[in-house]
Amino acid sequence: MNFNHVKLSFALNEMVAKTIEGERVYPVGEDKFYPSISTITSYRKRHTIKEWRQRVGEQEANKISTQAASIGTSFHSMAEDYLNNNFNIEKYKDKYMAKVLFIQAKPILNMINNIHFQEAPLYSDEFQIAGRVDCIGEFDGKLSVIDFKSSIKEKKEEWIENYFVQETGYAKMYEERSGIKVDQIVTIIACQSGETQIFIKNPSDYVPLLIDYIKEYREGNDRYRQTT
């Protein structure tokens, strides 16, 4: 499979995330920083995560989180290399589980084409957010924000509202930066149970939730309360 990469008439300025007062932010101008959309969408689930860590114990929680992050990073890198027409299985010879997830997800990755950007830095002045999107390209013929995830088991849709909100944030950022409308958001979750899930949503449906998430984050963050 050879993936087409669209030649666009504009570029996206590189941004490097940094931490200010414990907050992950991106510089978007002189002395101007916007919070990471992933930090914002994680904020609402902080109590659930804390309860899980207390339930399983800190040592076990750290072990599970570290292993999941390692597998997820490798799977993401494989998908990125594959879509860049630069995949070499030898690069990942020691990443057994990530290779299994990639192989089972490959037919779904083949539904992607006409790629605009991968790992692209984005921000929005309207929503005052920033982040780095996995992939913007066509999925099954429609321009999409595409997010690659891995999981031990399948996810119920009601568990991953934050994924859809985060992807909507990327869609709005890209539309603002490019003037190009994103038709849909696509979540691809490769599960160790053997399934690969696909969730396809309309970003317009999640804009009100995006606004709610941003408001909740700002109201709970000392740095923003001090400036209002």
Task: Explain what you see.
It is a single chain. With 228 residues, the chain is of the alpha+beta class. The protein contains seven helices and eight strands; from the N terminus they run E-E-E-H-H-H-H-E-E-E-H-E-E-H-H. The protein has helices at residues 37-43, 46-56, 58-83, 96-109, 161-178, 207-219, 222-225, and strands spanning 18-20, 23-29, 32-35, 112-124, 129-139, 142-151, 184-191, 196-201. It has a five-stranded mixed beta sheet with strand order 4-5-6-7-8, with helices on both faces. Strands 1-2-3 form a three-stranded antiparallel beta sheet. The protein starts with 17 loop residues before the first strand and ends with a helix.
- What's the CATH first level? Alpha Beta
Strand content: 25-35%
- What spatial form do the alpha-carbon principal axes imply? globular
Main sheet: strands, sense, barrel: 5 strands, mixed
Radius of gyration: 18 Å
How many helices? The count is 7
Percent of residues in helices comes to 40-55%
One letter per element, helices H and strands E, the order comes to EEEHHHHEEEHEEHH
Strand order of the largest sheet: 4-5-6-7-8
CATH topology: Lambda Exonuclease, Chain A
